[in-house]
Amino acid sequence: APNRSPDRSIALVGLMGAGKSTVGQKLAAKLALPFVDADTEIERAARLDIPSLFERYGEAAFRDCERRVIARLAGGPVQVIATGGGAFVDEATRRLLLARCHVLWLDAPVERLAARVGRRGGRPLLDGRDTIEALESLAAARTRYYAEAHIRIDASEDRDETVARILAALP
Ligand code: S3P
């Protein structure tokens, strides 16, 4: 059955490699909604790519920028928003997203996440570390926050399957 247009934006949260950006693009196309990637918006606002932002100003400055950008996106028209993996850990961002959006946690085993992030660099929190170990420690610290999402989606299969699961789960 065709999904109605959602009444709120859809925010995708979860660890790096969960597929937030690729799934988000496809989902937005299916729902005929705009798609926006918070990381890309941060890079645009800061006029720096994320690794440079971390390197020059540190993670705390990146998080400040991320909080402001997501507040703007969540206050905008209904759209599909892919957030960076750490965004939903921030309390202010989490509260805002939970109040304004349908928040979907894309959840997948660390091995699957690792296989996906292997294909793209530019993630300062993984640089120079064993990917599985780094993702495991992030998962240990973050799962309790992701679990506050409105809906948990099993994102261990491919993008099309994940999109189908989301469409079936949306209210
Ligand atoms: C981060 C995830 C990245 C990006 C930054 C920090 C994190 O986004 O925001 O490197 O803290 O998990 P993706 O989840 O899109 O890779």
TrEMBL record:
Top EC category: transferase
Presence of the UniProt keyword 4Fe-4S in the record: no
Any single Pfam family the record assigns to this protein: SKI
Top-level taxon of the source organism: Bacteria
Residues at which ATP binds: G17, A18, G19, K20, S21, T22, R123
Reactions listed under catalytic activity: shikimate + ATP = 3-phosphoshikimate + ADP + H(+)
Protein name: Shikimate kinase
Originating gene: aroK
